[in-house]
Amino acid sequence: MGELVERFYSKDELKNALIVDSEGLIYGFLEDYFVEGGRVYIKAYVTVEAEELYVDYEKLFQAIRKRGVEVSENAPLEILVSTARELGLDIPYRRASKRIRLVKGIFPVEEVKWISSATFVKETGEEEKKTVVLLKTPREAKYRGARKQKEPVLSEESIRGKLVVSLSKGVLGYAGELVVGFGRAGLRVYRKLGGRKYVNWLKFITELRRRRFVDLAEKLAEYADPYKESKLPLSKLSEVEEILRNEKVSEEVFQLLQGSVYSEAEEPVYRDVPLDSILKIREVIIVE
Length: 288
Prior knowledge:
By secondary structure, the protein is an alpha+beta fold. The protein has helices at residues 11-14, 57-66, 77-86, 139-144, 156-159, 201-210, 214-223, 237-246, 251-258, and strands at 18-20, 26-36, 39-55, 93-108, 112-121, 127-135, 163-166, 170-180, 185-192, 197-200, 231-233, 261-263, 269-274, 278-281, 285-287. The longest helix is centred in the N-terminal third of the chain and has 10 residues, at 57-66. The radius of gyration is 27 Å and the shape is extended.
């Protein structure tokens, strides 16, 4: 992987990109950018767990029934609430958590050191695309009141599994194990942990026809021609499963589909980074 080359990104390409400050702390995710007063600004967001009170539909339904009032099991909630108030009943509530999005902050584009995007292959064979916006400033550290890390604190627990980015090369991968070489130690950073998984589409369609699911095979061949696309990426599996659910197929067909998922035999892809090139070990590892 060579030196990072500058390029420009559209809003769609940057949507939900991870924003990391100069201390290796995660500031949030990119929501948008806009122009104001002749300057371009980036808007960042975070998601948080929030608790809300909701009307307990089941308890309210049973309370009304106990008063001898017949209501449909599919009655809208507002009908139940209205009926309960007419009967002088207390409205029962329950707590439930949900994730909400909050604007974290807005900062000028001049704070961006670089933007880099890379695709990784996990141990499961699934692909993950990661786009990172690295800042020149310790924006998140200031937000948390955290001190600047002068010397990275190294331990196997502090590094394993963390995202690794390079000031000069962009997004590198995920930290693995420590390695040793000629008089010094390093960190193995993985871009690919296993072989890509795929659906052997030609085999699946052929097997459907052999088992006399001819109409289904023809419909699926319209979705993807097995002679032009003999292999489908694993990311398409959920779409195929949705088609099968809509067609109300038997469990046998789903088993055939799962049996058509294969993994390519590939060696892990990694690069070794000298430990003395590590600048920050926090939520994200930053190297030279």
